[in-house]
Amino acid sequence: MPGQTSKAARRYAEAAFELATQHFDEYADGLELAAELLGQDEGLAILRNQARPLGQRTDVVHRGLDGRVPETVVRLVCLLIQRGRIDELPTVAREFRRMLNEERGTVDAVAHTAMPLTAGETAALEEKVARMTGRTVHLTVELDESLIGGLTVRVGDTLYDASVRGRLERLRERLVAGAR
User: Fold this and answer.
1) CB atoms < 10 A from the CB of 5, how many?
2) Which residues have CB under 8 Å from 31's CB, separation 6+?
3) I need a surface site. Which of 15, 41, 46, 95 has the fewest CB within 10 A?
4) How many CB atoms lie within 10 A of CB 100?
5) pLDDT-derived band of residue 8, with 50, 70 and 90 as boundaries?
6) Are 61 and 77 in contact (CB under 8 A)?
7) How far is it, in rounded angstroms, from Cα 19 to Cα 12?
8) How confident is the model at residue 167 (pLDDT cuts 50, 70, 90)?
9) pLDDT in tens, 41-56
10) 33 by DSSP, 3-state: which?
11) What is the dihedral of CA 76, 80, 86, 87, to 10 degrees?
12) Three-state secondary structure readout of 37-103
């Protein structure tokens, strides 16, 4: 579930963070790649199948990840399989990235826009979100055709809504409240 972190995923991410020492970016990228490659339904079905011997399941991991991610990431993935927690891998990767961002004073933000933004508009939005959060921002912009106009920006658990739909909804609420 995006947005929620289990206690187990947090513990695995914390342990991974301690192991990463000075190779944080490489480790974070490795975790994200492992989650992407192994997180498909087909791959997960194989990795979580307790009827398969553990050696077969970890062989799948080694074939898919060796040479592509740090060895410590491969060992962590194998540990998750061994402990029956492979489903936590995407959450571990997200939590690790969150911890890395926290350590560096940065934050990831996702903007959903009704229309594509120019490079200048994206830079201005990134600067605005940085002022609002007091942190360095890594902004991802995604097109959302369901928006009538405007944009929304999600920073962690906070949603900033500057969409036309959001404004119309707030207006409707005020009108309903005033009619009472």
Assistant:
1) 16
2) 16, 69, 73, 76, 89, 92, 93, 96, 97
3) 41
4) 17
5) confident
6) yes
7) 11
8) confident
9) 777 888 999 899 999 9
10) helix
11) -100
12) HHCCHHHHHHHHCCCCCHHHHHHHHHHHHECCECHHHHHHHHHHHHCCCHHHHHHHHHHHHHHHHHH
| Phi and psi, residue 52, nearest 5° | -80, 140
CATH of segment(s) 7-101: 1.10.520.20
Given a contact cutoff of 8 angstroms between Cβ atoms, the answer to whether 95 and 69 are in contact is: no
End-to-end CA distance of the chain: 38
Q: Give residue 99's identity as a one-letter amino acid code.
A: M
pLDDT digits (tens, 9 = 90+) for 12-48: 888 777 776 668 888 899 999 999 988 777 778 889 9
Strand (E) or helix (H) holding 150: strand 150-155
